[in-house]
Design brief:
With 410 residues, the chain is mainly alpha-helical. It has 16 helices and four strands. It has a four-stranded mixed sheet with strand order 1-2-4-3. Bound molecules: zinc ion.
Length: 410
């Protein structure tokens, strides 16, 4: 294959992905005004539903603007040999290929993040603000960015440097070492994320004694599952939207409840949400997800190891001498159709897991409080009650509210 042809294939992949996403979003938007399914009637009054429909429309328009901006800048970068110029800048700093790789990705990631700041600012302080969700201050917004960059530089930079180094010393076999590194890191993060990373952004406190704690203890005795690591996180610092999640395993397992969730829901409903989370743990979803993502990572790294040193990849992006970082960029684009397919599969599996966790909550606690909590949470985040079927298949990690309610009522 000539570099010229590969260049057009890469462009084709980027454009096709944009067109497909845009089509899918438009398809989804066509259903914004559909009738509310019978099982969800009464969630909103007329005025509230109007508000939720406005929210969907505003977000749809906004995503159209951001994705158009993003594809235009990407195409311009491609057509004007952006990768070649950044490569030249990086080479100007050092002859060490690890340093070059770090500077190269540093520039690209940092620059694209800077370009998207106005959009995330608008999303938080105009759209979310207008609909009453935003609690973030400018100060929190700026510090979140800075902390995010610092973490990216240390963690992302460290991993990238090691992988580049593995490539240097072992070339074709580097994927095995990279896989081992990423696996150890993922397992470590899965276990200690709540202890190491979350505190940089949020305060977590053990759930205090009281009605809720007693109710949870009663439930935990009933199912014979130790639930002593329940934390409340100050999600209200940024947004009124509520959430709960399970993380870690073994001695590190814990359930985190947003303070907004505790404010929005009745005690029974919170225990139902918790029962759903315990369902994920009991059905080993956390372990399965971790193992699957490790397998996928191994597969991706293996394909990467076959392609990354290929001269044509670098030439296609206007760089004469094949190098790891340029190969990685070209590979990332070539691989994106495959990752669309794997994410389709992962989302389908995740939706299956959600049904299982709902069933667990239904059988061990009750469906009624879970239904009412799901409805409240959906209402409070103005979520879409009438999404398009294809859109759900491709993008949803959870079944739709109406699917979950129907399943819980079975
Ligand atoms: Zn779940």
């Amino acid at each position: 294959m000539t570099p010229q042809l590969l260049f057009y294939i890469l462009l084709g992949i980027i454009i096709a992905k944009f067109l497909f996403d845009t089509y899918l979003n438009a398809l989804n938007a066509k259903h914004f005004n559909d009738e509310i399914p019978i099982e969800l009637e009464g969630i909103y009054n007329k005025e509230e539903y109007q508000k939720s429909q406005n929210y969907k429309k505003v977000n749809y328009k906004f995503s159209l603007i951001t994705s158009s901006f993003s594809i235009i800048t990407t195409l311009l970068f491609f057509l004007f040999n952006g990768f070649y110029f950044v490569d030249e800048i990086a080479k100007g700093f050092s002859t060490n290929s690890i340093v070059i790789t770090l500077i190269f990705f540093g520039i690209i990631i940092f620059a694209s993040d800077i370009l998207t700041i106005p959009f995330s600012y608008y999303k938080t302080f105009v759209i979310e603000e207008k609909f009453g969700f935003n609690k973030t201050t400018i100060k929190i917004f700026i510090f979140d960015k800075l902390k995010g960059w610092l973490m990216m530089a240390i963690v992302g930079g460290g991993i990238l440097a090691l992988i580049t180094w593995f490539y240097q010393i072992t070339t074709t076999n580097f994927w095995l070492y990279a896989w081992a590194l990423v696996s150890v890191f993922s397992i470590f993060m899965n276990m200690f994320y709540s202890k190491l990373i979350v505190p940089l952004f949020n305060k977590q406190t053990l759930l205090e004694d009281g009605e809720l704690k007693t109710a949870i203890e009663n439930f935990s005795t009933k199912i014979g599952f130790k639930l002593d690591n329940i934390f409340v996180i100050d999600g209200s610092k940024r947004s009124t939207k509520a959430n709960a999640y399970f993380s870690g395993f073994g001695s590190q397992k814990r359930i985190t409840l947003f303070d907004t969730l505790i404010n929005d829901l009745e005690t029974e409903e919170i225990v139902a949400v918790l029962a759903h989370e315990v369902g994920h743990y009991k059905k080993r979803h956390i372990i399965y997800n971790l193992l699957l993502s490790l397998l996928l990572t191994g597969f991706t790294l293996y394909i990467l190891s076959i392609l990354v040193g290929n001269q044509t990849l670098s030439n296609a992006l206007g760089v004469e001498q094949a190098s790891f970082h340029i190969g990685l960029i070209a590979f990332g684009i070539l691989y994106s159709p495959i990752s669309e397919i794997t994410s389709l599969f992962m989302n389908a599996l995740s939706r299956k897991f959600e049904y299982q966790a709902d069933d667990y909550a239904k059988n061990n606690f009750g469906s009624k409080p879970l239904i009412s909590s799901l409805k409240k949470l959906s209402k409070n985040s103005l979520s879409n009650l009438t999404p398009n079927k294809l859109y759900v298949k491709i993008h949803y990690s959870h079944p739709t509210l109406s699917q979950r309610v129907i399943n819980l009522k079975k």
